[in-house]
Amino acid sequence: MSANGRIITAIDPGSYKVKAVIAEITDEDKPNILGFGTAVSRGIKKGKITDLSKATESIVSAIEEAEEMAKVTPETCIATITGDHIKGINTTSAIIITDQNSDTNDLRNVEKEDLIKLTEYAKAINLPIDWKILHFLPQEYVLDDQGGIKNPLDLSCRRLEAKVHLIAYNYTNATNIKKSIENSGLKLETFVSHSIASAYGSLYRDEMELGTILIDIGGGTTDLSLHYAGGVYQTSVITVAGNNITTDIAYLLQTPLEKAEKIKKEHGLAIPSDSDADKNIDFNLINGNPSSLSKQQLAQYIEPRVEEILLEVKNECRKSNLNFLRTFPVVITGGSANLKRIDELAENIFETSSRIGIPHDFTGYQEELKKPEFSAVIGLLKYYIIASKQPDSFRTTQKRKFKWLDNFLKKFL
């Protein structure tokens, strides 16, 4: 069944903002945005529900704004999921491929059943109680001693190995997030890892092939995904992000959090500059008294926290064991990517090129949505389009209805 003409709703329940986007899938396989909504996030902290009632209110507010703009009332949605209850795991699995009807154990062609068995072996890893696999992302297949195979089906070998990246999630936390979304009246079809959604929103296909480090710095979490040769080699969630920068400013300046956020957005710099030493920022202290500081001083407060985030991402990247990782460019997206000169700081830390990632390949409301903070929610829509091209994508039974979400990743990532 084609997705063309279908209406899909994407929800990104962040710690700072909840975003909802309603789109129609066009013949050009691009999401045509019909409406979008944002709401201040309440009851959601670092990807976890801390107050179900407040979280539901925030989600409802974003959805209603999107519905009013789109003039449609959707019934289902897909949503991002993030937090320290999301884990990326690199693993391998292998099976013997031989012709059982032959006395010499001749090699034979790889069949669909072999890939299913290989997938199940890869997923059979030790996970804590209440943890489940969300995504199965093949990096490459190895036929005997020949690596770099992307699709081994019908190829001949004696031994088939899969190198994969798994993304697992805590079922309890996911259930609570699902409850907060479905309390809004929409049926949640599936979750998608925030890091994967951001990649679809802000990266280009060539970047996924040649190698890219994607860093999505949101309000409550920083999501990392490392892409190479069409595969995902590392995903991590770091619970230090934009809200920590705001808290630092509020503490150091002794000003309210709301004012600190405004100062960060309007005057924040990731790297201090001597040219900003004479540019003053006026603000009020918590007690209401007036105060001021230079933009250079503000940048000196911000830089250590941003540097901490980027260095932690760099350490996480090393877990991928890619020897040529240092050559990969960096793409920074998410709301905190709006912080001026953050790409320059990333270049200094990673010693490579860097750019700000914004969503692309969609129509409608481009002026409003071509911003880093919308990368994940737009990426969700693009994810859906590619998934819908897979055979038997939409089943009537709920249990198997969205098995395509893993199937298409095997071909696209």
Could you write a compact summary of the structure shown?
By secondary structure, this protein is of the alpha+beta class. Helices cover about 35% and strands about 30% of the residues. The strands form six sheets. Strands 3-2-1-6-13 form a five-stranded mixed β-sheet, sandwiched between helices. A five-stranded mixed β-sheet has the order 16-15-14-19-20, with helices on both faces.
Radius of gyration: 23 Å
For the largest beta-sheet, the strand count, sense and barrel status come to: 5 strands, mixed
Helices, by number, come to 12
Report the span from N to C terminus: 22 Å
For the secondary structure, the number of strands is: 20
Describe the protein's architecture and organization.
The protein is of the alpha+beta class and 413 residues long. The chain is 34% helix and 30% strand. It has 12 helices and 20 strands. The chain has helices spanning 52-70, 112-123, 171-182, 194-202, 205-210, 242-253, 257-267, 295-317, 342-350, 366-369, 375-388, 404-412; strands at residues 7-13, 17-25, 31-40, 44-45, 48-49, 76-81, 86-96, 108-109, 131-143, 146-149, 156-157, 159-170, 187-193, 212-217, 222-228, 231-238, 280-284, 290-294, 330-333, 354-356. The strands form 6 sheets. Strands 3-2-1-6-13 form a 5-stranded mixed β-sheet, with helices on both faces. Strand 2 and strand 3 form a beta hairpin. The longest helix has 23 residues, at 295-317. The model is unreliable at 391-413 (pLDDT under 50).
